Amino acid sequence: MNQPTEPIVLSTPRKCIVGVQFLFVAFGATVLVPLLVGLDPSTALFSAGIGTLIFHLVTKGIVPIFLGSSFAFIAPIIKATELYGLSGTISGIVGVGAVYLIMSALVKWQGLKVIRRLFPPVVIGPVIILIGLSLSSAGVNMANQDWLLAIVSLAVAVFVTIYTRGLLKLIPIFCGILVGYLLALSLGRVDLSAVATAPWFGLPQFIPYEGFAWEPILFMIPVAIAPVIEHIGDVYVVNTVTGKDFVKNPGLHRTLLGDGLACIAASFIGGPPVTTYSEVTGAMSLTKVTDPVVIRIAAVTGIVFSMIGKVSALLKSIPPAVLGGIMLLLFGTIASAGIVNLMQHKLDMTNTRNVVIISITLTIGIGGAVFSYGDFSLSGIGLSAVVAVLLNLILPLSKKEKEKEKRRREECEQA
User: Fold this and answer.
1) Distance CA 69, CA 277 (A)
2) Which residues of 13-32 are buried (b: 16+ CB within 10 A; e: fewer)?
3) What is the pLDDT of residue 2?
């Protein structure tokens, strides 16, 4: 386990500077999600800022966590938009928030054992793999529009990831997009007319909430499984970085509740779902700044940026090929994280039960299976996640696995 960072006491001006730095660490990923799914990037910045402030309010203002757009929802939002339209999809994000609220109540009631029972590595691993692979063709298609821009953007992101240090290493997406965009500008492949006519100040493009629509809500609910697990993991990482135990105070149920309410707030204004940001946690570890006030400054800065009209227009002018190049790395990285999840938990791949669950989950997701009942349909990652959970609950554990699971529960209770 890493040693906790010694907290640094900063003056107010210094807190503001570091807060802006933290926002830029999360900036590339936060605006990339809406650009890929057809939402306004300014709305995503606004919802990330508001969501972070809601989270801090619910968690007593003591947990240094920033919430931003989650990559896990890119594929589901695109598919849901095809099925239910953009306004229906935005309504469906309420279902994501509902999952967080339900998990919050379960953790408050039963502790972490209920989540470990429903979502062990054999369930989470293949679902994360599917999140990464489901849009791989979309990334290639976008890159096809201009392979020069795509390759340069990809190369810069890879270089920053492998060869740089410090805060720069945490923003490979931002660096890749920036260099790709500058190259596109130099080649005359960027249309700046919308930037010139955009107002300097104005509210983001909020999408009116049109009320409950059960089909998109039920479609989005299963997709929230992986981000919920990611949330729990990030809270434990923040514990390590700060040397505090936020699982006990304010409690994991409060952090889940705060994240869920932030997701619901995002749906009301037309923003993508938000979740915890590992990149900002990494920035805290590097800078040794773990003051929650700094995170709130980053949130307020994001809200301010969202009200600068030319920022949104500038982001929308990024050529699709630049984004496509970044996606080639991004979605592969997400899929790799699913494989790493299986390896870290030392999942026994010679065990028939594990092979069956992973195989069926991946085949259903990649094969495009659809479950339909009347007007309701479930497909893609959502259907795969439901199948993985059900298989894990139905298929019996071997005697050896039961003993291993018993020891794991005992260790968790002692921890």
Assistant:
1) 9
2) eebbebbbbbbebbbbbbbb
3) 47
